[in-house]
Amino acid sequence: MSLRTDLSERWRALFRRERADQELDDELSFHIDQDVAARVARGANPDAARRDAMIALGGVSQVTQEVREARGVGPLEDLAADIRHAFRLIRANPMFAITVIVVLGGALGAATGVFAVADSSLFSDSRYGVSGRLVRIYESNSPANRFALSSADALALLEQQRTFDAIGFVRRGDVALVGAGAPERAVAAWATSGFFAAVDARASTGRVITRADELDSAPPVVVVSHALALERFGDASVVGRDLVADGVHHTIVGVLPPAVAELGGIRSRIWLPLKIATPHRRGPFWLRGIGRLRPGVSIDMAARDLATISQRLFPIWASSFRDQSAAMTPFSLRDTILGDAPKRIALFGAAVSLVWLIALANVATLTLVRASARDQELAIRLAVGATRGRVARLLVTDSLLLTTIAGLVGLTLATLIVPFARIVAAELPHIADASVGGRTVLFAAAATIVSGILITVPALVAGLGRARPLRVDSRRVGRDLRTSRLRAVLVSAEFALALPLVASAFWFVQTIWRLQSIDPGFAVAGAVTLNVQLTGPRYTEGKARAAFWQRLDDRARSLPGVTAVGYGGSIPPDDPDDVNNFDLVDRPARGGAEPTAPWNVISSGFLEALGVRLVDGRDFTAAEYASGSENALVSASWARHYFPGESALGRKMVSGGCTTCPPTEVVGVVSDVKYQGLDGNSDAVYQISNPANATSSRLVARTSISEDETIRALANTVHSIDADVLVEASTFRARLGDALTQPKHWTALVGSFAAAAGTLAALGLFGLMSYIVRQQRRDIGVRLALGATPQAMTWMVVRRGVRYALAGSCIGVALAIIAGRWLSTSSFGIQSASGLVIVAIAAALMAVAALASWWPGYQAAHIPTLEAMSVE
Amino acid sequence: MILFLQIIWRNSVGGDLLQGTVELMVLKALSLEAMHGWGIGQRLDQMSGEVFQLPHGSLYPALQRMLRKGSIRSEWRTTENNRRARYYVITPAGRRQLQDEIKSWRRASTALNTILAQ
Q1: What is the distance between the alpha carbons of residues A239 and A748, in angstroms, rounded to a whole number?
Q2: Reduced to 3 DSSP states, what percent helix, strand and coil does chain B have, rounded to the nearest 5?
Q3: How far apart are CA B35 and CA B91, in angstroms?
Q4: How many whole angstroms separate alpha carbon A845 and alpha carbon A9?
Q5: By three-state DSSP, how is residue A845 classified?
Q6: Residue range A238-277, pLDDT digits in tens
Q7: CA distance A373 to A489
Q8: Is pLDDT at A785 greater than 90 in this prediction?
Q9: Are A444 and A97 in contact (CB under 8 A)?
């Protein structure tokens, strides 16, 4: 067969269909006329001749159909016809179409939204470097305690490491920008050239930081993000222009590509060269180390390499750092950035999948009913010669059209959900970059197609569209029974799937209640905190810093209403950054696994400002506060934890692994405060530190007047000393609220999924019971006529509805137990996923089921008997 | 999807003995002169000595398939009675096909005759 003629004939057939049909019509009528003429010429009666001619031809419409099929575009033509047919059906029954589109569109939208978030957070591996070879290097002295690197560490690594292709260092901070655009404080990062090499960052114009920029003598340069260039200069071609950062003129040498908002997990718009000065001591530990493993080098090999370097480094700085247990250790950068995000996203993936399945079951029952309503139509199609495959395709096309519309609705919905998720799930990594992109669209398309097929399966399974004798009788009892049974299974499944979701939502709510009832350990009312950060070249001198803190302390104490002021390293309720390892002299740890505890270094006034009480022993003396001491205070929880039933007073410990330092002695026990989140334990150790040398410190104050007023007064005091100092103030009331924000968001999300699931299940049951009552109208009418009470009829329907829900809930209980196990091992603060809750929720779902079946039952009770019996 | 594939399979691979025979006869008829559908039907009846009673309706799908194959083409002409009719004309490819099929038919029928003669 020649391809050219074949295609041209098919083309003609497809796109000139009307003309081809017209020609065929002409041809066939010519054929008949000719045949009639011939028969008449042989002496036949003209009417009989025409009839015989028609019979000889075999029916004009049949020939037309066969010729059309021979044109070879049958399937395509059929598809077009099916789609037209599906559109007609939508017009004929818009409520059905709207329900399907809303229910499925909603579920697909939620699923697509969650996928977009997961895609940006978890699957965009490019952010974590080539095939996971990027690592973050920490100092670590126990599995629970890891901290940043020091300059000494960094220089040793650069010199001695053998396991990395590239290694670099970076620290975050902020700078004051003046010059083009409004003056602002912007997040900035200082990074070495090795950092850019490790994360493989390139500039879209200009260059990134090079080794030459790291020299002390190098002129100040800066690399900016595309967003910053646009915002401040209105233009991306800013290479060579001047940017004043912290009062110093910097030349812009490069602009990062528009898509790059962060590098190596650090979100910054300004990148400055990090100049690592020759250290005089081992600390401070302030640098993030980022390395790219050499191909073929495992993270364990790198860990051994780094441990060797740490061992060599230790003796050099033993005078300033005595923690021999601390070693530089590599961790997968991906894991350090993601934290527990994968589990959180998995939860939402699971929740949204359940909702999607419930929506599918719901829509499947609807299509089942509709297909069964179309049973007669399909039977006629089969009787006049449609093949079974053709009818099946008709049904599938019909569902696919609706699901495609639902998919588009879902995709639109997802574009609305994603910006919402950026706010609600703000703590997920990379959430700011989440968007509906190509992969999300592909996901939506795949989910749509799968949905379209799945919602048709029950209709096909029910044996609809199977060839059989046409019946005039419309009471197709057997088939209806089968349809109803399938629907009942689907509705039960909805309840089975809804139960774990509703139970999970309840556990989340329970967790919020529990967190709200936890005593944070400090007097919330009247307590405020100020995060104060010194900036600019003025404070390079230690004396200038000490002077600032002293002046601030003096002036703050004399503010009206302020009763106590102090500095602290950690601020409750969720600031576990300062954690230290220690070894009890009485009970030494075995195998180097030393315990850790929040280690708060405080000045006088801190405990008083927070309202922390002395429980046993003594507070630090004024002399100790003034000149420092090796003594420590511990929290009551710490004392119970390490010396149960005994006094902790006078106990000695080696802190931070420093065996040559004088041991730390416990002189007092104070009341519990939460430093590791409301859900964390209340262990804490306090030692004295004055902020004399620090560039930043946290001030806490207690006031007897309005908190907001005190915050304003404190901020003004800071700025009256130096207007350029950064201040971030909050009340402890707000901090407590913030600590609950995230669990509240998660709860709201899970709760809305659960609400959707419960509603869909109830609606599904309502639909099924209404349908059953309609089908059995006649039977119920007969029963009522025979003397059954209306109440009995209502109860019959309600009992049946509850039975379906109960059947589903039995499976649901098993699913909920699994969900509970999983939730209580993940980081949502859910402690007891109790079976009692599951039973209670199952009972509540039964009540919902009873309610959903009540209205159909009520209608059943009020069927006019005579009318029902004469209907058919 | 499977049903869909089955349909395509049947349409492209199927084609039974009768269909092949009809095409052979149509090509034979058209090898003498161009004809319209009804004319072809009459000629086939004559040629087969009315042994085959081919429903004339099945002629048109066969003609459509042959058009697609390129063994014939069609054109609208005026008959001697001054009516417009669609005439079918054999193409060079159609003549080659006719020769090939006659040869293979002869071979097959010779073989069959030999078997039957034994």
Answers
A1: 46
A2: 65, 15, 20
A3: 13
A4: 62
A5: helix
A6: 999 988 887 788 999 999 988 787 888 888 889 999 988 8
A7: 19
A8: no
A9: no
Residues A140-198: tens digit of each pLDDT: 877 767 888 888 889 899 999 999 999 999 998 878 787 666 777 788 999 999 999 99
Nearest CA to A685 among A582, A564, A567? A582
pLDDT at A16 over 70: no
Structure letter (DSSP) for residue A663 = P
Give the 3-state DSSP-derived string for A117-130, with helices as H, strands as E and coil as C. HHHHHHHCHHHHCH
Q: What is the pLDDT of residues A18-60, one digit of tens each?
A: 778 888 888 888 888 888 988 898 888 888 888 888 888 877 7
Cis peptide before A143 (omega within 30 of 0): no
| pLDDT score recorded for residue A467 | 45
pLDDT band of A463, cuts 50, 70, 90:
low
β A614-617/B72-78 pair status: unpaired
Mutate to test the interface with B, among A27, A391, A457 (most CBs of B within 10 A): A27
Q: Which of A76, A829, A739 is nearest to A511 (CA)?
A: A829
- Contact between A130 and A292 under an 8 Å Cβ cutoff? The reply is yes
**What CA–CA distance (Å, rounded) separates A58 from A66?**
11
* A22, two tokens: 């017209």
Query: Model confidence over A587-618: pLDDT tens digits?
Result: 887 655 678 888 888 888 899 999 999 999 99
C-alpha A306/C-alpha A289 separation (Å) is: 12
Residue A333 CA to residue A574 CA, distance in Å, equals 24
Specify the DSSP element, H or E, that contains A802: helix A790-824
Question: Do residues A754 and A504 lie in contact, with contact meaning Cβ atoms separated by under 8 Å?
Answer: yes
Best residue in A32, A57, A394 to probe B by mutation, most B CBs within 10 Å? A57
| Contact list, A387 vs chain B (CB under 8 Å) | 7
Backbone angles phi, psi at A251, to 5 degrees: -95, 130
Instruction: Please confirm whether the linkage preceding A663 is cis (ω < 30° from 0).
Output: no
Contact residues for A832 (Cβ-Cβ < 8 A; gap 6+): A824
Residue B118's pLDDT band (cuts 50, 70, 90): confident
The answer to whether A598 and A684 are in contact (CB under 8 A) is: yes
Q: What are the tokens at A326?
A: 């601390």
ipTM of this predicted structure:
0.80
Q: Half-sphere exposure of A357 toward its Cβ, with a 13 Å CA cutoff?
A: 18
Average pLDDT of span A209-228 = 91
Whether the Cβ atoms of residue A649 and residue A615 lie closer than 8 Å to each other? no
In whole angstroms, give the CA distance from residue A418 to residue A406. Answer: 18
User: Nearest-CA residue of chain A relative to B60?
Assistant: A67
What pLDDT digit, counting tens, does each position of A561-595 carry? Answer: 899 999 888 888 877 557 777 888 888 876 556 78
Distance CA A641, CA A629 (A): 24
* Pairwise CB contact (< 8 Å): A57 & B85: no
Q: Is A527 helix (H, G, I), strand (E, B) or coil?
A: strand
Backbone torsions φ then ψ of A143, nearest 5 degrees: -55, -30
Please give the structure tokens belonging to residue B64. Answer: 């459509």
Minimal CA–CA distance to A62: which of B55, B104, B78?
Answer: B55
CB contact under 8 A, B55 and A58: yes
Of A33, A71, A387, the CB nearest to B64: A71
Closest CA to A502 of A826, A764, A760: A760
Q: Where are the domains of chain B?
A: 16-117
Q: Check CB contact of A27 with chain B, cutoff 8 Å.
A: yes
pLDDT of residue A11: 63
Q: Does A184 touch chain B (CB under 8 A)?
A: no
* Tokens matching residue A445: 């398309």
Q: How far apart are CA A113 and CA A437, in angstroms?
A: 11
Which CATH code for domain B16-117?
Answer: 1.10.10.10
Q: What is the largest CA-CA distance in chain A?
A: 139
